[in-house]
Design goal:
8 helices, Lipocalin, Alpha-Beta Plaits, four-stranded antiparallel β-sheet
Length: 305
């Protein structure tokens, strides 16, 4: 049968291109058809690697915990700029004696994940509450978040501790032993609706005396009251201004400031008297750091002393 002659000037189809297209399509179809069978036969699937928190602010870490991990907020006992720590087998503080807990760690930045050799870990920790002694054993590292991404790899406890310079074993002990220990997410906060991006922004707190650096001089004591930790929320020219700033903080953060008091510490500088507003006391440095993260996230100044 004669094929019709194409009109003059019209492009002729390329047989090599047509054959190449057909071969490419066949290759793709074969690959797609074989991929499920390969995954099913091998049991392999891509490991879940969610992104890290967008920042180390308290709100960003909280959103990340809720959205990208399987952690329960009320199990979280401590957080810092590199990791979130929680008790897997949670329970009330014992107040004394010996207690064992499985500590769960989730890395929140790549530097810690690289040092760990994974993104999450568990460790069996025994606390001697009467003698303030802590023993770490049976550490297992996982390549992905939420103990996923592959089988866990046992690792020496010393290696895990070396990879976590920001981990304070004293705070872990307090969380297991002391009823006074304040977790980052208090009970009154856990059930509250989390403010999303569409929520009205929290007003920015007025910043105290711009030219006054918040850190204390090295020669002054770092902890104003022995046995407790305080957070400096500003430095002002008078006690009245410090009191006014504290009232505004309590209005903005009623839950976080519940049970805290204001301590007025005076210091002479350049012939003037400044009033440092110290909020506290906090039982541990970790709880004070969590408080400061919330204040800084809202536009205020805060430094653990």
């Amino acid at each position: 049968m004669d094929r019709p002659t194409p009109p003059a000037g019209s492009p002729r189809p390329s047989r090599s291109r047509a054959r190449g297209a057909i071969a490419f399509a066949a290759c793709i179809a074969t690959s797609l058809a074989g991929a499920p069978a390969l995954a099913q036969s091998s049991g392999w699937s891509p490991p879940p690697y969610p992104t890290f928190p967008h920042s180390t602010s308290f709100a960003s870490i909280k959103l990340w915990i809720l959205g990208d991990t399987d952690l329960a907020l009320d199990h979280v006992i401590m957080l810092n700029t590199e990791a979130v720590y929680a008790f897997v087998d949670d329970g009330p503080p014992t107040g004394g004696g010996t207690v064992s807990r499985v500590v769960r760690e989730e890395a929140i930045n790549g530097a810690l994940a690289q040092r760990l050799g994974g993104r999450s870990a568990t460790a069996e920790v025994t606390f001697d509450c009467d003698h303030a002694e802590t023993t770490v054993s049976a550490v297992t590292l996982y390549p992905g978040n939420s103990l996923g991404g592959g089988p866990g790899q046992p690792t020496p406890a010393t290696r895990w501790l070396d990879a976590n310079p920001g981990l304070d074993l004293t705070d872990l002990s307090q969380a297991a032993c002391s009823a006074a220990y304040q977790r980052p997410f208090k009970a009154s906060v856990r059930s509250a609706a989390l403010r999303g991006p569409a929520s009205a922004p929290r007003p920015t707190l007025p910043r105290p005396i711009p030219n006054e650096p918040v850190p204390a001089e090295p020669s002054e004591p770092q902890v104003p009251r022995p046995g407790h930790v305080w957070a400096q929320v500003g430095a002002f020219g008078s006690a009245a201004l410090a009191d006014d700033h504290w009232r505004k903080l309590k209005d903005h953060y009623p839950t976080d400031t519940d049970g805290l008091t204001l301590r007025d510490e005076t210091v002479a500088r350049d012939g003037k008297t400044l009033h440092r507003a110290l909020a506290g006391p906090f039982e541990t440095r970790a709880t004070a750091e969590a408080f400061c993260m919330r204040v800084r996230n809202g536009g205020g100044d805060c430094l653990v002393r």
